[in-house]
Every structure is written in C-alpha cells, then in structure tokens.
Design a protein that fits this description.
single chain, 171 residues, 0% strand
C-alpha cells in the first residue's frame, strides 16, 4: 500500500524521519565550532569571502551525504584506521589554522620593534585580503576534514535510507 511505501526500515514514516534528521541538523548547524569561527574570519575580511567559505563547507557536506548514501559507514566500521586517518588530518588542519597566526606573531615579536612594525604592516596589507578561491578552499577543507561532521552523516543517515532503494537518491 502507499502508507507502507513511506515507511523507513525501523517503522517510522518518512515525515517523522525527515523531522528527526532535520532537528539534529538544525542543532548541529546552530552550535558554534571551528566552522563558525572560520566563517567569521573570512566574512569579516569581506562578506563575499564568507559566502565563499560557506559554499565550500556545503560542497563538503554534500560529499559526506553522498558518501553516507554510498554506504561508506560500513567501510569505516570495517576499517577504523580510515576514520582515524581522517580525524588526524582534520586535527592537523585545525592546528594549522589556529597556530599559523600565533607562530607568525611570535616570530615578529622576536624582531626589533622597527622591523616588527614594518613586517606587521606588510603582512597586514598582503595577508589581510583573502581571495574568493582561498575562502572557498578553506571552507571545503574544514568540512571535509572534520571527523565529527563525517561521523554525524555516516552514523545518522544510513538508518533512514530504505533497504533496496537508490542510495544516492535517498541521501
């Protein structure tokens, strides 16, 4: 019957499943994290760079959704080293984003005050402007290498994909 076609494998209706996934996604989207600060960093530089960063994040999020639809969760469960590699790469990228400016500031602090002023002005004029592509790439890498985001999709989505369905169409 038509009602049975709307059931998700665990017996929930498609509407209930959509509301559950949507609610979890809303809570995740509203909770601050590295993405929030990265987006603010680029948006404060230029609003269009903030949009570029958000677009890059969305590309990676769609990638995680597609991977969940293809059944990558089973692969990560079978080979936990892959997940661990993603987590390490994500952690290293976050360290790079956070420590890069601190290392630059520390390096400049060791110079004489006149040299530090000139170097600071030079860095401010050169590094202060991000390109659209740099902003997009930073957003995309941030989401692609975020292990918590990957786990969210790979753990949350598979139970809501009907057995025997077109996996990418369901994702």
């Amino acid at each position: 019957s038509a009602a049975e076609a709307l059931l998700v494998p665990n017996g929930q209706t498609a509407v209930t499943a959509t509301l559950v996934v949507g609610g979890v996604a809303l809570v995740v989207a509203l909770s601050p994290g590295p993405h929030t600060f990265l987006l603010l960093r680029y948006a404060l530089n230029r609003p269009r760079n903030g949009v570029a960063s958000a677009m890059g994040m969305m590309v990676s999020i769609m990638g995680w959704a597609a991977l969940a639809g293809l059944g990558v969760a089973a692969l990560l469960k079978t080979y936990p080293a892959i997940h661990q590699g993603i987590a390490v790469a994500g952690g290293l990228y976050l360290l790079y984003l956070g420590l890069g400016p601190l290392i630059t500031a520390r390096f400049l602090a060791g110079d004489t005050s006149a040299t530090a002023r000139i170097a600071t002005r030079s860095l401010a004029s050169n590094a202060g402007e991000f390109t659209f592509l740099q902003s997009f790439r930073a957003g995309m890498l941030s989401s692609a290498l975020n292990p918590k985001l990957g786990l969210l999709f790979l753990a949350l989505m598979p139970p809501f994909i009907p057995a025997g369905s077109n996996l990418l169409g369901s994702a």
